[in-house]
Design goal:
The chain is mainly alpha-helical. Helix 4 runs antiparallel to helix 7. The two termini are 37 Å apart. 55% of the residues are buried. The C terminus is likely disordered.
Length: 541
């Protein structure tokens, strides 16, 4: 231990935290009573299944940009485009996965199928071959991404729904349940990033991706063994014939093939998203204009908030792309592998989310709480300011000297506080403002815009590569300064017109169609984009 460096200690601490959570979880689910800590034991099964899924997803995400540049030898620009296309597809497929679960499979079978696909995908990532784009093994890499994209589609949108189904709609424990579930999301994200990232960058890619695969396999095992504790929740909405079930699984396999093709032709992804986005906007407007005045204007407010999504996530998701590369090459990491720094965001969320929840309550009691659009503006201002913190920090040292790591912690701090002002608030607003019969459509549009932002993130990241596709410190900081100032300017503009948007929301006449009905309101908490399409968290996104 005397020979350990900072990275070794960070991994040791993360592993100890993971063991503590596992020990507490094992204790909880083996108690001889139906509830532990005031919650059904099924909640803890879902907690650990989701924790392991986030462990694998964020562990793999931490390594992906380095794997593309250092192993498959894509240049920086091309790597960012692949990264952006991949993350955007991960956030689109849950719309289809959620629809198939609601209509045919039920959430439990959808989650189980998604977990199987994810496990296959993460283990396929461990087949690294000899490297370079001429290595035939790269086709296994594309297939691995396809399995993960489709697997996420079946799992992410549905596991959080089962959490809500464990409780009556008016049960006061629901918010507490999602707080516990949200902790699983972010613990998995933080620990997975540290352990898988460390193994991948110190021992070899196969070790890092293999760890992500093992994590997903453990999540699958937990979910299977914990079925009796789910109390029959998440089952199909009507009796499911074997032929229909097999057809749904066949649709998933076909989806893998489609994604295998799309991820290799990233420009096609952008074109399809643009066409689909215009069509979706047109359909939402068509439905909105059929409504009465007040609900119609609420829909206009919803569209205004959704329109800010691509900007926010396009900038925020630099974390896994260009900012990850910048950290590796230009930050004084003091021996810590660059991928480990992506754990800062989920750790900040765990620490700060309760603070923000308490802050909004405290301000609300005094009539000082900002409106939803004002919070969006504040989120954009903080997001932009985070980039400027890094730019100003880099200016404190000569161009040939590594940027002090404290400024990296600074950019993640302001990005996280910006996320907490926008993502959970936005999810809550979508559920609160949308007419009941359009709730799913609105939530789908919200996450589609998130996916669009992730694609934009790849394009912005690609711009840091310049004409030759290779990132430079000067060019990247110049782009960060520009997008930082633009985000702050737009944020200020949003704050200035927030009063007008608030009027469109007609909060004074908003009524409950079904008191206590917050089936979609599982989304009052945040996940790193981390977001994600996990409406309970995932903000991560």
């Amino acid at each position: 231990m005397s020979m350990w460096n900072e990275g070794d200690w960070i991994v040791a601490i993360a592993s100890a935290v993971l063991l503590v959570f596992l020990a507490v979880g094992a204790w909880a689910v083996t108690r001889p009573r139906p509830e532990v800590g005031g919650h059904p034991k099924g909640l803890y099964i879902l907690f650990f299944a989701e924790m392991w899924e986030r462990f694998s997803y964020y562990g793999m995400r931490a390594l992906l940009i380095f794997y593309l540049t250092q192993h498959w030898l894509f240049n920086d620009s091309a790597s960012n485009i692949v990264y952006g296309a991949y993350v955007s597809l991960v956030y689109i497929t849950p719309v289809l996965g959620g629809w198939l679960a609601d209509r045919y499979l039920g959430q439990r079978k959808a989650v189980l199928f998604g977990a199987i696909l994810l496990t296959i995908g993460h283990f396929c990532m461990a087949f690294e071959g000899t490297g370079g784009q001429n290595d035939p093994t790269i086709n296994i890499f594309w297939m691995a991404l396809a399995f993960i994209i489709v697997g996420s589609g079946f799992l992410k949108a549905n596991i959080s729904v089962i959490v809500g189904q464990l409780y009556p709609r008016t049960d006061v424990r629901r918010d507490g349940a999602y707080t516990i579930f949200y902790m699983g999301i972010n613990v998995g994200a933080a620990v997975g990033t540290i352990i898988a990232g460390y193994l991948g960058q110190t021992l070899g890619w196969a070790y890092g991706f293999g760890a992500a695969g093992i994590g997903m396999l453990l999540g699958l095992v937990v979910f299977i063994l914990g079925k009796p504790l789910l109390l029959g929740r998440g089952e199909p909405p009507k009796p499911l014939t074997k032929s229909t079930e097999m057809t749904m699984y066949g649709v998933g396999i076909v989806g893998v093939v489609v994604m295998w093709l799309l991820i290799q032709y990233q420009s096609v992804v952008g074109g399809l998203m643009l066409i689909s986005g215009v069509a979706l906007l047109g359909y939402v407007l068509f439905e909105a204009f059929k409504l009465e005045k007040e609900p119609r204007e609420r829909m206009f407010a919803i569209l205004f908030l959704i329109a800010l999504q691509p900007l926010f996530w396009g900038l925020f998701e630099q974390a896994g792309g260009s900012l990850n590369l910048f950290t590796d090459r230009y930050i004084d990491r003091q021996g810590v592998p660059a991928s480990l720094f992506q754990s800062i965001n989920p750790i900040y969320i765990i620490l700060l989310a309760p603070v923000f929840a308490s802050l909004w309550t405290w301000l609300g009691k005094r009539g000082l709480e900002p409106s939803t659009p004002a919070k969006f503006g504040l989120g954009l201002v903080q997001l932009g300011f985070g980039f400027l913190v890094l730019v100003w920090g880099a200016a404190t040292v000569p161009a040939d000297v590594a940027v002090p790591v404290i400024f990296l912690f600074g950019i993640y701090l302001f990005h996280t506080t910006g996320e907490l002002c926008l993502s959970p608030v936005g999810l809550s607003a979508m559920n609160r403002l949308s007419p009941t019969h359009l709730a799913s459509l609105v939530m789908g549009a919200w996450f589609f815009a998130t996916a669009g932002g992730n694609y934009v993130a790849g394009m912005i990241g690609a711009a840091t590569g310049g004409e030759d596709g290779e990132m430079t410190r000067e060019a990247t900081l110049s782009i960060y300064q520009t997008i930082g100032l633009v985000a702050m300017a737009i944020g200020v503009g949003v704050i200035l017109i927030s009063g007008l948007v608030k009027k469109l929301m007609h909060l004074d006449t908003l009524k409950d169609d079904d008191p206590g009905d917050d089936m979609l309101g599982q989304s009052t908490l945040a996940e790193p984009q981390g977001a994600g399409v996990d409406t309970s968290g995932e903000v991560r996104n």
